[in-house]
Every structure is written in C-alpha cells, then in structure tokens.
Write a structure and sequence with these properties.
Blueprint lengths: L1 E9 L5 E5 L2 E5 L7 E7 L2 E9 L25 H18 L5 E2 L12 E9 L2 E7 L6 E3 L8 H5 L1 H11 L6 E8 L2 E7 L6 H14 L3 E4 L2 E4 L5 E4 L2 E4 L10 H14 L5 E5 L7 H4 L4 E6 L2 H13 L6 E5 L9 H4 L4 E4 L7 H9 L4 E6 L2 H13 L3 E8 L9 E7 L7
Parallel strand pairs: 6-21, 11-12, 16-17, 16-19, 17-18, 19-20
Antiparallel strand pairs: 1-2, 1-4, 2-3, 4-5, 7-8, 7-10, 8-9, 10-11, 12-13, 14-15, 20-22, 21-22
GO molecular function, one term: rRNA (uridine-C5-)-methyltransferase activity
Keywords: 4Fe-4S, Iron, Iron-sulfur, Metal-binding, Methyltransferase, S-adenosyl-L-methionine, Transferase
InterPro entries: MeTrfase_TrmA_AS, NA-bd_OB-fold, SAM-dependent_MTases_sf, U5_MeTrfase_fam
Length: about 425
C-alpha cells in the first residue's frame, strides 16, 4: 500500500528522508520539498509517484535510472548536486570540530569513468550483463551508461558475449572492465572454473575483439597486450584487478594538488601507494619511498620506475599499514608525505604521523567521515590544516573524494 510523504532532506547516501512517527524513512530518487507516494517497508520505501516535484528535479541522463543501482542522483539539478556533495565534506569536518578553507567541488564530466564493475548472470533467456538494481541482487541489463567512457559502452555487446563464453556457474559474477592505453582490461571474479575448451574459445574471442587482457579470479587467461596506464609521463603495466582512481581527470587533479604541496620536500613517503599514481609523479622532483601492502601493485610500481627516465630514486616496501604502520621515528626520515588509504581510513597510521615532525602532509580520501577522524588526529598532534579540496569522480553517486593539505612547523632534530 502506498502512502503520502513529504521529503525533508537528503541523506548521506542520496536518498530523500521523510519524517514519520516511527522515525526517518528513506525514499530513493526523491528531493527535499517533494510530496510523494511510496510503498513502505520498515525504514525504507519504494517511490511510487512524485505528486509535487522540487524545482531542482531534472530529466535523468540515462534510460536505466531508478532501475539500475549505479547512480543515485541523476534527477538532481547540477549546481545543487555539486553543493550537496561539497557539503558532505563540510559536514563531516564540522562533526569533528574542524574548520578550514574548503574549496569548491572539482566537477566530474559525464562519460569519463574508466573502470566499471558489471554484474553478469546466465538466465534462460540469455546472459544478463549490467548493474544490480538499487539495494537488490537483481541484475538490470544495460544498453547505455552516461558515466562510463565511450570505449566501455561501445563494447557492451562483446562483453556480454564474453560473459556467456566464460560462465561456468549458475550464480551471478563480477566483470571489472578498465580502459587502458592498450585496450580493455577485463578482470572477472566468481564465474566458475573454466575447462580447457572454454579457455581456448574465450582466448580466441579476446584476441578477435582486440581486448588487452582477460583474467579470472586474478589468474591471467590471456594477455595479448599488457594493459598500460600512464601516471604522468611514466607508463605502468598494471596487474589484474588493480585499484585505479575512477577517472583519469580526477587522478591528475589530485596529483597536481599533492605535488604542489610537497614541492619543497626532497624525500617523500607515499603510503598506500598502489601502482604509483602519486609516487611516480612525485619522483620527477623528489626521492620517493612507496609503501604498499599489495605485492602485485608494488611490483608494477617498481617496474614502471625502473624503465622510466628522468626520475629521482624510487624505493618500495611491501607492508600492511593497518597491521604495522610506519612509526613516527621511521617517518622522521622524510620531509614530505602523502597517504591515500581505503574507505576505512588510516587511524593507526595517522597517530604515528601526528607524533612525527614531517613538515608537509597530504591526506587523500574517498570517505569524508574517516578523513575527518584522521585529520582530527593530525591536528591534535600539532598539524595545521591549510585546505581541503572536494573532488567528484563518482558522478551522480553519493561518494566524494577529498585532498587535505597540512603543515607542521619544523622542529630541530637532535
């Protein structure tokens, strides 16, 4: 049964929130001030109709919007959407008592996402390939995607055919597709064990379609061309399923902000370094020590640095920074530092940074809440927060990246 609700505000995940006698009710694809009807189930509801629309409601960019769970906010007017996303960072910092200069949101262009994770499943009617429905395991087959690079959208038919060839399970599986300088890199997970015949057919298909690589559960099935990504002027052959920033433009912007802040540093530590998106750019002017827990990513960074020209010394260290963060004594060997942890942030590592006397620190985060927690630790340890720049690289989603720049007065070392 549908009931009438008034939307009061947007929640942190982009859902409209209506106040009810039993608490807040979350209704996706609605906007503040709207009057809607929705079918309620506990604290969530499915939108049935918009009775009175917000003046900020716009026509979605994609025919699959509201069915596909990939985007949450295509119906939100552009400038209002950007203000809301920036405010997520402001709100998180205020929650920890932090006030500083927060820049305008660096916008994300449509058709710029270089890596998407598709869901696939074999059905009686054929192979489904697309994204999961909002908060559901159901797969919505897609024929367009306005956030993704055109190379991905143009290949949807071939990717669906490849999914059919490699499927050896009755369950759904994941297909991560990344645009690289060598072609599409396709990393599949949980599609089942391939037989030799299937493997040969899939390999021939990959070659025929001009894909760069196919891997299944991190095992390379075939690699006609090593997938290469440029970090500044350095070419890196990335391992299967490796982490990359979602858009090349956002990565470049973050690297420019970080590099500008650390320009006076002669020796820099890059923590959670990945394949070197920061380290290899910073190494054009400074010595860099890259610390990363993933062996394959660190190896790719190392190979990239060895074959590049014009770089200062780059060293690498494999280390789980959650279990064994660099100590403040180790950090004191550096005069610049950048850290870019996963969404959980870097609480223990931040405590060690706070005790150090590294004068220039750049913190990069995809989670404003854990960023605020880590910045609070650094500020309490004597750092001054100069600026925070919000960056959108997850268009029409609730996710927002941020780069925070900090300084600590240099202490005389005994």
């Amino acid at each position: 049964m549908s009931v009438r609700f008034t939307i009061r505000k947007l929640g942190s995940q982009g859902d409209g929130i209506a106040e009810t006698e039993s608490g807040d009710l979350f209704i996706p694809f609605t906007l503040p001030g709207e009057i809607v009807t929705a079918a309620r189930e506990r604290d969530r509801a499915t939108l049935m109709a918009v009775l009175e629309a917000s003046p900020l409601r716009v026509e979605p960019a994609c025919r699959h919007f509201t069915e596909c769970g990939g985007c949450a906010l295509q119906h939100f007017e552009t400038e209002a959407y950007r203000r809301w996303k920036r405010e997520k960072v402001v709100h998180a910092l205020k929650g920890k008592g932090i006030e500083c200069e927060i820049g305008e949101l660096v916008a994300c262009a449509p058709q710029s996402r270089r890596r998407v994770v598709l869901a696939a499943r074999r059905m009686d009617a054929g192979m489904l390939l697309g994204f999961n429905r909002h908060l559901s395991p159901e797969i919505i087959s897609i024929s367009e995607c306005p956030i993704s690079l055109p190379e991905i959208v143009a290949a949807l038919g071939q990717l669906r055919a490849l999914a059919e060839l490699i499927c050896a399970t009755t369950k759904s599986f994941r297909m991560a597709v990344t645009v690289t300088g060598s072609g599409l890199d396709i990393a599949v997970h949980e599609s089942g064990k391939l037989g030799e015949h299937q493997r040969r057919i899939a390999s021939n298909f990959v070659i025929a379609q001009g894909f760069a690589r196919l891997s299944i559960d991190d095992e390379i099935v075939i690699e006609p061309r090593k997938p290469v990504v440029m970090f500044g002027s350095v070419a890196v052959a990335v391992p299967p399923g490796t982490f990359l920033q979602a858009t090349e433009a956002a990565e470049r912007t973050m690297a420019e902000i970080v590099s500008g802040h650390l320009k006076r540093a002669k020796k820099i530590a890059d923590l959670f370094a990945g394949c070197g998106s920061f380290a290899l750019r910073l190494a054009t002017k400074s010595e860099v020590h890259a610390v990363e827990g993933d062996a394959a990513a660190l190896s790719a960074l190392d190979r990239g640095s060895r074959f590049a020209t014009g770089l200062k010394r780059v060293t690498g260290e494999r280390r789980d920074l959650f279990r064994r963060p660099l100590t403040f004594k180790e950090l004191n060997a550096f005069d610049g530092l950048v850290f870019d942890p996963p969404r959980a942030g870097a609480e223990d590592q931040s405590k060690q940074i706070a005790r150090s006397d590294v004068p220039y620190v750049a913190a990069v985060s995809c989670n404003p809440v854990t960023l605020a927690r880590d910045l609070r630790i650094l500020i309490d340890g004597g750092y001054m927060l100069n600026s925070v720049t919000p960056i959108d690289q997850f268009l029409w989603s609730p996710h927002v990246e941020a780069v925070a720049l900090l300084e600590k007065p240099r202490r005389r070392r005994g």
